[in-house]
User: Fold this.
Amino acid sequence: MASTEIARQAGEGARAVPLAGHVGFDSMPDQLVNKSVNHGFCFNILCVGETGLGKSTLMDTLFNTKFEGEPTQHNQPGVTLKSNTYELQESNVRLKLTVVNTVGFGDQINKEDSYKSIVEFIDAQFEAYLQEELKIKRTLHSYHDTRIHACLYFIAPTGHSLKSLDLVTMKKLDSKVNIIPIVAKSDAISKSELAKFKIKITSELVSNGVQIYQFPTDDESVAEINSTMNSHLPFAVVGSTEEVKIGNKMVKARQYPWGTVQVENENHCDFVKLREMLIRVNMEDLREQTHTRHYELYRRCKLEEMGFKDTDPDSKPFSLQETYEAKRNEFMGELQKKEEEMRQMFVQRVKEKEAELKEAEKELHEKFDRLKKLHQDEKKKVEDKKKSLDDELNMFKQKKTAAELLHNQAQQAGGSTTLKRDKERKNV
Amino acid sequence: MRKSCCCKHKQAHLALWSCVANVPSHPQPSLSHSNMSESAKPHHLTPQGKGEKTHGSDFSYVGIDAILEQMRRKAMKQGFELNIMVVGQSGLGKSTLMNTLFKSKVSRKSVQPNPEERIPKTIEIKSISHDIEEKGVRMKLTVIDTPGFGDQINNENCWQPIMKFINDQYEAYLQEEVNINRKKRIPDSRVHCCIYFIPPTGHCLRPLDVEFMRRLSKVVNIVPVIAKADTLTLEERDDFKETIREELRANGIDVYPQKEFDEDADDRKINDKIREMIPFAVVGSDQEYQVNGKKILGRKTKWGTIEVENIAHCEFAYLRDLLIRTHMENIKDITGSIHYETYRVRRLNESNGHFVSRWGLSRRGELA
Assistant:
């Protein structure tokens, strides 16, 4: 029998070894990329903003397609979230894009609970992923990831400052999702006002401790462009799907009597910057941040809530088995207690019902007795009456026979007189 | 999922492996396969300049495919990990082959020079890590050696320490994954690929080989190779390979690339070609000689020089291409998503796993 002797020299002792020739693993990134291309990508954007800020139009403009047919109905009482999934393809990349819109945000009179449905939605996506990850037989490879990767927060172009609804909502969302604030319909603000507006917004966000998504600056190839863009936040955008002829080209623009606002002109608005940052430079980073930061935070909170710990007070790591055993016993105990309670309640109810029924039975018996007695009384009365009637009848009969006897005697004694009487009676 | 048409990488693979069909078993002018680093390069990212579009008149270009470049950048920054295990009797050239594959001294012998070559009394498992870099791509390569395997007189259960080691790596990964506070990138020490060395007897597989491969093909990707193939003539080699393939089939041993994990028709075509060629007959060498004015790796004997990277001489190039240049990602993928998941399912099921699913269900009830 062979036994084991394991000698490990990995990890910290990894030596750097020079290669004497071309090995060929520099094709690894290509293999990885091609695997992902075959698998397809998915990206989920959440658009939060008040009604009429141009959320749907901006999505159409960003991805160059007409997404929805008609604008959504705004007659729901609370804030609802509508999500639509689209399959886009560009060259060999397939993207499953999900756009989630908030319907009715900011429409209510009392807006205290507006953010709740949004937070619930985001949590529900995390929960679905967590459930899939915790399953025994799981298929993470082909799982459709619905976690929100980016949240575009639309700020109304008032020109003054952030509304309190915006502050509250952003504060609630900043630990759950990557927030990118944008100033919507920014062709309503002049350039100077816009600069002041942006400064005011940024300072308000900082003073309230709202953490918006910062474009990553650790990778040298994109650090420069990202840091310049970071200073342009929040982006002031204009969205349009209509095309206007400028010079000899058709461009996306909004036409006014006093001029035309070109969407893709950097002097007019920051749309190009937004598209650049959101899609062309940082899409992968947004997905990664969602997975490694926001999702992990959610997972940690959820598991700790459930009572799972990594180490117990003696800082010995809990083994999987022990934790599950403890949880299981607890659960079984609870179950038993509940069962007991239910049994008790059941017994109680049965007793009550029995007592009730007994009462009713007793009543019925009494009633029966009473009726019987009544019946007997009546019967007796009737019999009494009958007896008295019989007595009367007898007396009457006696009187009748006595009278008849008398009559017969009288007849015999004065037979003629009766005849005379009869004749007289006849003549009269 | 529907496949889109232009998949240059797959087509390049196909081209690479279809050259195989043209090499008959008789000596022919050599085809050199040294530099086959094809790459499907997506277009480069150009940060937008002032306003106007950079793609000519294509103003409907959104830029979704820039994500490929982003992924590539991220991958280059993170680096890659690869863990290879070599299993076989001593003297079959395992360490030399590792050195040849990675063109550097990565084997155990190079790291710890033993004063005397001893065969260990028991199976030891020695794993050594190296950081290698090529053209900006960093890789942490871990070579796991198993000296003592198959060397005893009684080799019963000699696969057990190896299986235990592999399962321990899965266990470590599982533990880290289940943690509440877990690392951003879970360190991957799982064995991705196990190269099994078959001695070049020329007859058939030994019972030890069959037994080992049968057990381990269920937990790890096995790539069988015929070691020291320069002792077989080409006809003997083909016969031997045919016998081995037959025996593998008869015993139900699924070696890499496994038939059931082929994703689509393209994959199946490429993998079928590979399956027709396994086990690869390899020769390893880390010494260079001059042949026709070029310095190449080879073995010099009195009757000639065997060139390691010449596919007319031996099939080392195919092994290297399979492991490193074309299928490395696929190997890691299968390890992670199939072997590891199988282990995880088994493990969670045996330790009151049914409670976990019930726990999940009851939580869903709580949340709803």
About this structure: Chain A has two domains: 37-240+269-306, 322-390. Confidence is low (pLDDT under 50) at residues 1-12, 312-318 of chain A. DSSP finds ten helices and eleven strands in chain A. The CA atoms of residues 29 and 35 of chain A lie 10 Å apart.
